[in-house]
Write a structure and sequence with these properties.
DNA-binding; homodimer; two-stranded antiparallel ribbon; elongated
Chain lengths: 149, 149
DNA sequence: TTTAAATAAGACAAAGTTGTCTTATTTAAA
DNA sequence: TTTAAATAAGACAACTTTGTCTTATTTAAA
């Protein structure tokens, strides 16, 4: 798995949040139920998105989550970094330290190319763009083939 | 991490084995010491390579490991499959089941392209080719910048 | 002001992966 | 035939990730 499960959940939750355009704060409970993700686990993940400056949260009744910035300008990469940290994509495929700097591992160049193309895509694709695709029914973010998400 | 640590160790061990061209059986102990991999952990991994038909092992004095077939014809992919199983490369990036069959996840196409190119490379690159690169000193398979491997 | 709805924080459990150790078995060589 | 060198097998420990639960705190609305 290139991405951790936490990261996957975070991406799906962000897309869900972007689907909700009425300006209200969305409770984690609602997200967890609709996406079938463990509530408490998801709250922890969302705290990372909060401290990463991607979403903001408000406690209490009518509280919940909202984007800190326009999700039009939030890339998938930002979410990955907020949750899995900055070096998910800079690790050597064979786990060798300083692979790029010292003598490289045998798969360095091939892996570098592949990971660069993934990184480019993750930087380009915004949360909003994915939400739009979900809206038009082209893709899904739930495990079951749910007509809504 | 795209590959498990077991898988990484397996690849490195296979390359080490390919470096040893004198026809003798190589003890796991020697591999583990030279590559700085836990001996018992490595024996387990090598058992997977054995049951996967990649190497053969002989017990007792002068025993050890040897390739079952010419490492000229053993691809990295075969090693990955023997250790991490067959669907390491067919998992959905967002963990959705049947992503390719049912309505896909939002990153399906992008991920599919990237993973295809990695798969092609893994299928093309042989254990021997890597061993040759290690011999000529272009790449390394150890954590420290060891002049030998 | 009280209550219900919400996040925050962190302890804890479960599961998976990684790593260690012990015992049994096999084999070549002394 | 005995011994030392090797793998086989699997129990078990440590660590990491994932998931559950409880308590505290905050906030809007009744």
């Amino acid at each position: 798995m290139l991405l951790s499960k936490s990261c996957i959940y975070g991406i799906r939750a962000a897309v869900y949040l972007a689907l909700n355009r009425n300006g209200k704060y969305v409770p984690v409970r609602e997200i967890s139920e609709n996406l079938d993700i463990s509530f408490h686990f998801l709250t922890k993940i969302c705290r990372k998105l909060s401290s990463g400056g991607i979403i903001k949260s408000i406690k209490g009744a009518q509280g919940g989550l909202k984007f800190e910035r326009d999700p039009e300008n939030i890339s998938i990469m930002e979410i990955v970094i907020a949750i899995d940290g900055n070096n998910r994509f800079s690790e050597c495929l064979l786990g060798l330290p300083d692979c790029g700097i010292l003598k490289p591992c045998p798969l360095h160049d091939d892996w570098f190319d592949a990971i660069e193309s993934i990184k480019e895509k993750f930087n380009d694709i915004t949360v909003n763009r994915i939400a739009e695709e979900v809206r038009t029914g082209n893709v899904r973010i739930t495990e079951i083939n749910n007509p809504d998400f």
